Description:
Largest sheet: 2 strands, antiparallel
Distance between the termini: 108 Å
Strand content: under 5%
Structural class: mainly alpha
Organism: Streptomyces sviceus (strain ATCC 29083 / DSM 924 / JCM 4929 / NBRC 13980 / NCIMB 11184 / NRRL 5439 / UC 5370)
Shape: elongated
Order of helices and strands: HEHHEHH
InterPro entries: DNA-bd_dom_put_sf, HTH_17
Helix content: 40-55%
Oligomer: single chain
Low-confidence stretches: none
Pfam family, one: HTH_17
Protein name: Helix-turn-helix domain-containing protein
Mean pLDDT: 85
Amino acid sequence: MKVRQQITDLPQLYSAADVAQALRCSEWWVKEQARRGRIPFTKPGGSYRFTVEHVAEIMRIFERRPTESVGTAVPAPRAPRRRTATTPVPVTSLKARTPRRARYSQSQSTAA
């Protein structure tokens, strides 16, 4: 009975699809975040698996809290940044080539 008790003590593991459904996102997103090391996971047998603690940590990682208290003024949007003056780059003017048809007719007229 001791072996059976140890097996039941193991944490429940959830697949990426289960986590994606719980978080209401795509399975691809969950796997990509795990692959990039942005979320906690375990990988027994080569597939991403998640415990309840992992899912809770994922929710904490992506949690956003208000930074300002209610009633404070919202800062005005910043003006777009302008390019700073740089040293001028020398400009090379381009010249179009004479069309092939015109070049061919010029060589025929000079040869005759």
